[in-house]
Write a structure and sequence with these properties.
Length: about 140
């Protein structure tokens, strides 16, 4: 049996905070992938057409691109912390509403809100990591 003398979580990162960001990215990726695997199947059961599911995701991609471009204006005008708090709250309400949605229009409108909120959460968390990495020279130690 192998014994490890260290009680640290084994990651390839040398910096302690790099491990934290790696674990945070792991959990966000696992949660996101669990949602994106199941949601197209739910849409296909409601719409009964794989082509319409593809059009739906194409529309969501265009909407995501538009809100990515608008996010620069929003993040310049408002602070990241209130945006993160409000989008987390709205995202939780939207996900709860998606479980109770019976109509495709209700589900689609709540999914648009969910997509916008998850986009803003991802952008604000990335900006937090960028600022933290710049302040603590994380990039120099990890690179």
């Amino acid at each position: 049996m192998l014994r490890y003398h260290s009680k640290k979580i084994a990651t390839p990162h040398k910096h302690k905070d790099g491990r934290i960001f790696a674990i945070m990215a792991l959990f966000v990726g696992l949660g996101s992938s669990a949602f994106w695997i199941i949601f197209p199947l739910i849409l296909n059961n409601l719409i009964h057409s794989e082509a319409k599911v593809g059009f739906y995701y194409s529309f969501m991609a265009v909407l995501g691109l538009i809100f990515c471009l608008l996010s620069t204006v929003i993040f310049q005008r408002y602070s990241k912390i209130p945006i993160l708090k409000s989008t987390l709250f709205v995202l939780c309400l939207g996900m709860i509403g998606m479980t109770a949605a019976e109509n495709i229009w209700h589900l689609g409108s709540l999914d648009i809100i969910r997509a916008i909120c998850s986009l803003f959460i991802g952008i604000s968390l990335s900006l937090f990591v960028k600022e933290f990495a710049t302040n603590s020279n994380l990039g120099l130690e990890e690179g």
